[in-house]
Give the backbone structure.
Amino acid sequence: MLRLTNRGFLVLFLSLSFLVFSLLSMDLLMLSLSISLAFVMGIDFLYFHSLINRDKCLCIECRDTQKIWVWEEKRSSVKIRCRRFSRIIAKPDWISLESLVSSKDTVSINFRTSFDVYGDYRLWFDVERRSAAGLFRYIEHIDTETHFIVYPETMYWILRVMAFLGLYGRGFLEPSENIGLLLTDFGEYVSSREYLPGDSLRRIDWKKTARREILYVKEFSVGGGLSSALLIDTKCLGKYTCDRVASAMLSTALTISREDLRETIVFCDIVGSKCFVFGDARELLMHVLNKVFELNIVEYNRLYEFVEPSAINVLRSFLRDLRKNPVSKDQFDTLSESRSLYIASTLMHDTEKILRIIEKTRSSGGQCVVMTPSRPWLDAKDIFDAYAIYKTYNNVINALRSIGAQVIEFDKRGVVKR
């Protein structure tokens, strides 16, 4: 629908004003000015109406599909052919415009993507076109047919766990940034060692690297002792929190497995009120993988892009035949006996139960590390719900720290917020 611009309203106002003055004063000059302005508006309207019906805006050099990880920010560009282009008035909220380069009837749009959650996204723009005299404007929707397939961080950790289990050996779609965020990136400094492929770049010991002229990384510890325990809360609010919690579960299980502990490992699920005791860390990995797949963040058919079908069939067979070994003690009582308790949760459900478990573990001399999404309000239904989640989240975080728990707030890029 054609609309008048501010200039168009001004010309219309002047034309009507001259017409009224000419009728009141019988002034032919005023009448001629009114008719002239009306004639210019009419010509501008007819030409512009013909143009927008005959020459639609089109995206050229588009129809592309790009695959990236959820934490990546990627620069990209599209080119549109659009006569009488004025400006972009609407776009997806997951892109930020960097520059517009116009050349005759074509416009190159340079932008940067930034996604909060995984999924399939389609790029579009609403552009404003203006008539030759600038009296009229028209809003047109452009579908660029450019798709972005955004992989969840959970998939990245699934592939890393499968590689650890020997089910996946070749390289996959590597991220442009190393996000090797494991629990060993935090805690108390223990020592430094030579860099190994896959180590987080955050852990580089620059002083020792400069002295030895060989790349060294720092090693940290968040506890250790007779046993480790992982407590998970798979209740999430939406795509953002589900992806973050699942990533924390897999990252923690992988950390425990890498330490190759010759000790008992306790694994508890708040949602199912079940606990398991494992003597082998690989059993823990398989149970955590099973819980992650139950969240439906990653479907098996998505893994075919990276993993051979035979490896996926082996994994599915393992998950079907998981050995059930419930603890003989009364459910969560075993957790407080652990020296290192890791908790992955949104902190929005069963909060009192989590606080009680942490208090009991701390009173027994154990250390507690709580991993939680940094912005759970992104999954809120509306602004009121977001504010309620924000207040609840901050209150729980403060309560956890007051009883001696170490809280790791992580985002899509593994950044600790506080």
User: Anything to note?
Assistant: Confidence is low (pLDDT under 50) at residues 171-184, 222-226, 325-330. The longest strand covers residues 136-151. Residues 62 and 111 are 14 Å apart (CA to CA).
